[in-house]
Amino acid sequence: MKILSFKSGHDGTVAGVNSADDSLLFSYEAEKNSFPRYTPVTPDTFIDAGLWFKDLPDVLALSGWSRNGIDHVTTSGAGYFGIGAGSETVGKRTFFGKTVDYYTSTHERAHIWCSYALSPFAQGEPCYVLLWEGVLGDFYEIDRDLNIHHLGRVMTSPGTRFAFLYALADPDFPISGGELRPADPGRLMAACAFGEGGPAEEEEQVLIDQILSIDTTTDPLRKSSFVNSPYFNIGTDSQRLKNLATKLSDAIFKQFQDFAETHLQKGYPLIIAGGCGLNGNWNAKWEKSGLFREVFVPPTTGDSGCAIGTAVDAMRHFTGRAKLNWSVYSGQSFCDDKADLEGLTATELNLKHVAQALYDGKIIGWTRGNCEIGPRALGNRSILAAPFNAETRARLNRIKGRAENSPVAPSCLEEDAHLHFDLEGSSPYMLSFHQVIDPSLAAVTHVDGSARVQTVRRDQNAFFYDLLAEFKAISGVGVLCNTSLNFKNSGFINSTSDLAHYAQQVGLDGFVAGNTFYEIGKI
Questions:
Q1: Contact 107, 63 (CB under 8 A)
Q2: pLDDT tens for each residue of 273-311
Q3: H or E element: which one contains 202?
Q4: Which end of the chain has the smaller Cβ count within 10 Å, N or C?
Q5: What is the reported pTM?
Q6: Tell me, what DSSP letter sits at residue 407?
Q7: What's the rounded Cα separation, in Å, for the pair 189 and 61?
Q8: Which of the 8 DSSP states describes residue 371?
């Protein structure tokens, strides 16, 4: 049985699952291949997905959503909320002349089943699930028979409450503004690293209490309601904002941790779902909390995983199975098309040559195989650099169009991670912060001493692993700066033509495409 699944709205995605071997065939995010960030499903995405099917799929699945994306009143598919009766619909549809099974379930269920399916825990092993995002903030338990039990709602809209502080402080966000900007949570998360923790001062606590006490189901957070706040339009670079961001972040996490300490006492592993799973600081806190045997966050913890989740929910309905064999490199394949290569010197790819160029201070675009699923570049659509100098971080951020003190993540040979970071074990999806313990890694050490680490094993990504090994042979350190390869406000670059244009536009020193290393300006 082959299942074709769609996620509507922002972070649009098309995914395919084959129940014959429980495999994830693909997950194509509409923003990838240089489309605008967070874009809905495009004709390009649909056509690319169709290449996987010699015949029409057996099951057509639709992830539930809200048509207007804000009020959650008008629904698409099974809608946004629910895990019990009425949260799934099963029927038949005619699809390009073929009658196929049709399955739709809620957005809430899509998040839960995506994270469950990708987790390393065997089907039948009970798990806790934390789903926290822009709307939902709930804990669940999945039992051995795949029943979902709602354990409690801790807070509505934790992601929205967190991001709202950035909009409140930003003079560029209009007072009449409605829906918050998708990039604001990440911006505020970055600001937290510059903040001073500790007990909140009186005016800080007043605003934290206001933000956390509003009933967002009936009274959405509006900037116009906070015009008398001392933080209104204070500026996003204000130290007062950074301090408050740290304390608001801690206050949100504490409410969830307090609930978990009281109600989640069976020692099950924790699976994290929803966009707040991209907050590396919160993920690290869960890992260190001691409340759970293990914590797993999938690379598609945000809405881009919902097409996978609904496909899995359909597979569960029709087959009773809900685990996938999958790879994080299940996105679109790279298109090595014709490109304007004037001004470039092309040589056959040699990893020692690339590693030496990186050691010499070059910044290089790196493409291999299929796109990563989810928002993190994990060695297939990356910009790479040596990790030693703070100026390298500043240059990378200029290339990316970000503030020069923005953090840059490291990728590290997994067996060496303990030499450079306070990390034992693996962190393959770059979703958790760890302290840097190697003082030579200035380019990847954020202002608070942390780094969002990706560990790399050869069985996960052989080519990227071998490049890190070659860099270690030259430098003594198996670590590289790794940031995403994309035009500003667009998804990952996915063709040689786009990459050649980008490299010369932003000032890369070279790039790898296919089996060729292109160097810019070399005589």
A1: yes
A2: 999 999 999 999 999 999 999 999 999 999 999 999 999
A3: helix 202-213
A4: C
A5: 0.96
A6: -
A7: 34
A8: P
